[in-house]
Every structure is written in structure tokens, then in C-alpha cells.
Amino acid sequence: MAKDRKISETKTAETSLTEDQVRKWLIENPDFLSENNDLFAANLPEARVSEEGVVNMQSFLLEKLQKETRDLKSLQGDLVAAARGNLHTQSIVHRSILEILEATSFGQFVHILTQDLPDVLEVDVITLCIEDSPIRFPDMTGLQRLKAGSVDRVYWPENKIVMRDDAPTSKAVFGPAKDLVRSDCLIRLDVPALQAGAILGIGSRDKDHFHYDQGTELIEFFASCTESLLRLWIENGAG
């Protein structure tokens, strides 16, 4: 730590430091003042107004410098927190994809997707919703049946992902967990082999867990993998 540095290694304790020595040490340790900007506040001169009414601007300039330093430190902290958050999200999405790749049957695929992944993705409920289809699927926990045309009635943005910080109650999507969900993410799945519309529903009990201006790149990647695996299971006789 900078505060642990010895300002003078060449002078004895009894010798007073000169201005030149302090100046030389500060030049040799340029990060000291940025790490100890509270020293500015301790030595900040009061704003003075001369008898002629001229304001001493030194204090204002120092205050401005202090504020800029605080703002930069705050911004740096925000950027570090955002980077860590993105890295964590990337990690749990990759882990989720590896988990659904491990399925050895369609039933296991649905189970992992809807029963195991909520813990991995740190949400409360995930459902696979499929409209009435010529393909008959057995009853499974987490597999929701939708009436034909239900998917088209949702207003989908270009990326086919809807994120709502204050989600309406939806028994059709979340079934018995409908009253738990406060915030949701709906993903339209494009799987022609299904011959029907499909939605992946992700819900959280925390309001604002999802919000409309959230980044969707990782969710889109997860949705693409889910679509591909669902298509493979359908083409291999699932249902």
C-alpha cells in the first residue's frame, strides 16, 4: 500500500524533509496522490475573496479535481462490477448448455431444461410451452400445452425475446408457478419440426430480475442451442 511507503529512505528520523525531497518522492511515486486524494480535502484552502472582491479560484479548481477523481473511481467500480456480472452470466449459460447436452432422451431433456436449470441460471421457474401439435407428447412436469395461435398473439420484438420487469400472471406459460413469477423472459422457439409454435418461459420471483433493456446476446445463444436440441429430439422420434 502507498501509505506504507517510507517517504524518505535516505534521511534519518531526526532530519526534517525539505520541499524538494517531498517533491522528488512524489514524482517517483506518481500514484500516491491518486490513491490518497483525501489529502486534498485536508489541505484545501478556504475560498477567499479579496478586498477588491476578486475570488480566489484555487479552492474551486481543487474541488473540481476532487469531484472528477471521485467520479472516475465510481465509474471504474461500476465497470468492474459490470464485467464481473457479465462473466458470471456467461459462465452459468455455458454450464446450462452443457447440462442439456447430457440428456439421453427427450424426457430427460425436458426434465433438465425445466427442473434442473432454474438453479443453474438462478431463476425460479423454466417451462417449455408447445402449442397443440400433430406430435403427441406425454405429460411431463415443466411441459406446458398452449392453444394453437397463442404464440403469435404475443408481441415479439425482432430478436424474439420479451423481457418484463413486472410480468402479468400467466397460467398458460408458468402453470402452477404462475403466482410466484414477478418478472419473466419469454423466448420464441423456431422449430419447424414441431409443426407448432413454442415458447421457452423463464420466470423469477424478483421484480426487475429481467427488464426490457437488458442485454440478450447470451440468452439468444442459449435459445439457439435449445432450438437445435429440441429439433434433434423431434426428428429422432420424441413424443
Notes on the protein architecture:
The protein is of the alpha+beta class and 239 residues long. 43% of the residues lie in helices and 12% in strands. The chain is built from seven helices and five strands; from the N terminus they run H-H-H-H-H-E-E-E-H-E-E-H. The chain has helices spanning 19-28, 32-35, 38-42, 58-101, 106-121, 171-174, 217-235; strands at 125-131, 143-146, 161-164, 183-189, 198-204. The protein has a five-stranded mixed beta sheet with strand order 2-1-5-4-3. Helix 4 packs antiparallel against helix 5 and helix 4 (58-101) packs parallel to helix 7 (217-235). It is elongated and about 90 Å long. The termini are far apart. The model has no long low-confidence stretch (mean pLDDT 85).
Helix content: 40-55%
Low confidence ranges? none
Mean pLDDT: 85
Shape: elongated
Q: Describe the biggest sheet?
A: 5 strands, mixed
The total count of helices amounts to 7
Number of DSSP strand runs: 5
**Beta content:** 5-15%
Which strand order do you get reading across the main beta sheet?
2-1-5-4-3
Gyration radius (Cα, Å) is 30 Å
**Secondary-structure element string:** HHHHHEEEHEEH
User: Which structural class matches the secondary elements?
Assistant: alpha+beta
What is the terminal separation in angstroms?
64 Å
